[in-house]
Amino acid sequence: MAKDGTVRGGARIKSGPQSAANKKKEAPAADPLGISDLPEPEDLIAEQVPPVDDFLTELQKDGTKLEADTIFISTYRWIKSRGCEKIVPKPLINEYAMSVARWMQAEHYISKYGTLALHPTVKSPITSPYVTMSQNYVKQITNTWYQIYTIVRDNGSASGEIDEDDLFMEQLISSKLKQRKKET
C-alpha cells in the first residue's frame, strides 16, 4: 500500500515461471522443419458438374471471354455441396451465371469509359448506358440468387453454413472485377 492509501504494484503481467502450455516446443534435430508431423492428404474425389451450355462460353464481340462458365461451375458446386443439385433447375443457374457475367462486363466498361456519356442528339452529358445496364443486372442477380438461396435454404443439408458462402460468392464476383480492371 502506498503512503496515500491506494493499492499499487503487485504481480507484473507475464512475470514468473512459464506454464508448460506456453513453453515453445523445439523441433527434433533430425527434422528441423517439422515436415514429418504433417498429416496425410485426404483422398480427392472428382466432382461431377453437368456440361456448361455453349452460350455461357461464347466469345464476345470485343474478343473477350465471357466468365459465365466459371460462375456456373462455382455456383453448381456450392449447390451440390448442400445436396440440392437435383432440386435447383439448371436454367435458373444459367440465368444467374449469365446475369453475373453481364454485370461484370458492364462494370468493366464503366471503369473503361466512365459514368458519363454524351447524348446522341443534344450532346449534353447523360448517365452512361452501362450504368443503367449494371443496375438492371444487379436486380436480376438479386432475384435469381434469392430463388436459388431459398431452394437451398429450405432443402439443403447444411443450413448453418450458407451465410459464410454468401461471402464466398461476393468474393468471387469482386475478384473477377479486379482481374478485369488489371487487364485494362
For the largest beta-sheet, the strand count, sense and barrel status come to: 2 strands, antiparallel
Q: Gap between N and C termini, in Å?
A: 69 Å
Give the overall shape, derived from the CA principal axes. Answer: extended
Low-pLDDT segments, ≥5 res: none
The tally of strands reads 2
The helix-strand sequence is HHEEHH
Helicity range of the residues?
Answer: 40-55%
SS-based class: mainly alpha
DSSP summary: helix tally: 4
* Beta-strand content bin: under 5%
Main β-sheet, spatial strand arrangement: 1-2
* Cα gyration radius (Å): 27 Å
Please tell me the overall pLDDT.
80
Would you kindly provide a written description of the structure presented here, covering whatever features stand out?
Helices cover 47% and strands 3% of the residues. The protein has 184 residues and is mainly alpha-helical. The longest helix has 27 residues, at 129-155. Helix 2 packs across helix 4. It is extended and about 85 Å long. It has a two-stranded antiparallel sheet with strand order 1-2. It has helices at 68-81, 90-113, 129-155, 162-183, and strands at 116-118, 125-127. It contains 4 helices and 2 strands; from the N terminus they run H-H-E-E-H-H. A hairpin with a 6-residue loop joins strand 1 and strand 2 (125-127). The chain has a domain at 57-162 and 172-183.
